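Researcher: I'm preparing a figure for a lab meeting and need a structural model of a single chain. I don't have an experimental structure, so a prediction will have to do for now. The sequence is pasted below. Please return the structure as C-alpha cells so I can convert it later.
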Amino acid sequence: MPGLRSSASVFRGPRRELVSKTMPLRRHTEMLKDLHERLNRRCYVHPDPLEFLYEYDDPADREVVGLVASSLAYGRVAQILKSVGNVLGLMGRRPLRFLQDASEASLGRDFAGFRHRFTTGENVSAMLSGVKRVIDRHGSLGSCFIAGMGQDDETVLPALSLFVRELDGDGRCGHLLPDPARGSACKRMNLFLRWMVRADEVDPGGWQAVSAAKLIVPLDTHMHRIALTLGATQRNAADMRTAREITDAFRRISPDDPVRYDFALTRLGIRSEMDLSALLSRSDAGAEVCVYA
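Model: Understood. Here is the structure written out cell by cell.
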C-alpha cells in the first residue's frame, strides 16, 4: 500500500510503558480464568452481532459479514441486530459474490433507504464499495490487512490504520471506519479483528497470519467500567491510549492472547441474568451448563 505506511508511523518506535502504576489486575487472574471457562461459549453469544458470522462457512464471505456486523455495532443491541440483518438480507447468501457483481451505482441504489442511528445508506454503500475495491486489488480483506503489517509492529494498529485508509480513501464512510491514528479507541474495528484473528468456540477466526498477541482490547464505555473496577487502568477517557493500557495489563496475564477474556467480560451487563457484581464474587456452584437453541 504505497504512500500510506508513513501515515501509521505514530504506532511505531520505542515501546512505552502504559500500564497503571497500581495495577492489581493479576490478583484477579484465577477469577478471569474461571469466568472464561464458564462464559466463553457459543450459547452466550446472543444477543451479539457476532452471531451473524456463524451463518457463513466460507471465510471469504465471513470476513465481509464481519466487517458489516462490527461496523454497525453501536447503539441498542436490538437495533444493531435488526440493522445488520437488513444489510445482510440485501446482500443475500453469498455477500462476496454480491459485491463482485455490484457497481458503486448499484450499491448506492440498494442501500439508499438504509438508516442506523448516525449511519446512512450512503455510508454503508461507500464502505461496501471500498470492500469491493480492496478485494479486487488484494483478493480478500485479510490479504489487504496482512499486506499492511510490518515485521516489527508490536500491535495491529499500524496495519489497521492502513487498512481503514484503503477501505475509505475519500472519507465517505464517516464514522463507520475510524482510523486509530486519530486517537479513537476504535472499538468496532478491534472487535472485527478479534473475530477474524482469534479462533475458539466463540470467535471464528480465519486470519491465521495475524498473531492474537498483537490484538487490542475492543474498548467501549462498558468495557472501560469493567477495566476500572479490575484495576486494569486508572484513566477516565475511553480512548486508544486507555485501550492500549488495558491491553498491556491483560497481556501480563495472557501474553499470547491479551483479548482472551474480552467476550466473557462483556457478557456482564449485556445479558440480563449477569451483572458486574458477579465479576468479583467467585461462584461456588461450579461450571454452568448451557444448552444450544
